[in-house]
Amino acid sequence: VSTxxxxxxxxxxxxxxxxxQESIHATDLVPRVCLTLANVNRVLYFICDTVLWVxxxxxxxxxxKEKWRMWAARHYYYCLLLSLARDLYELSLQMxxxxxxxxxxxxxxxxxxxxxxxxxxxxxxxxxxxxLLFRSLKKQPPLLLDTVKNFCDLLNPLDQLGIYxxxxxxxxxxxxxxxxxxxxxxxxxxxxxxVR
Length: 196
Prior knowledge:
Layout: H1 2-24, H2 29-56, H3 65-109, H4 118-139, H5 141-160, H6 168-187
Helix pairs in contact: 1-2, 2-3, 3-4, 3-5, 5-6
């Protein structure tokens, strides 16, 4: 089973190389840079993982397992950070669009402004931000799924690299949520976040 899993990983290397070639042609600069670098790091992660597999099956004994494991975790971490940066960029674009739509709707209604208390003024920005965030994610379920998946996947390398130690249960829960998000994307291809 382990050997079969590693052969599937080689297929993932090919997929990551193809995704890199696709992301190079993205029209928007930020997704192009983030996705290209993320996919390059993903390829490097799979190469490190393959080297670890070669050592584990006894084909090469002189490989420093701990060093290669840390390199793999580091490349996976960079891949996820860059993917999250792309998600946040896409989310900011969606929120800007939602804010413009809201401003147009308020102008067309031409409502008279009403008085706010000091407490309202202090919390208004947070309420507006959360409302825009909710509306943006509601309009873009693929963006929500991709962001949740990348965030949940990030827990494991953060723990492995010692950046932040998590309870194994939290890492397991993150892995479960990430797997469910991945299954949804496979089952419903329209839920995959597209490269623009």
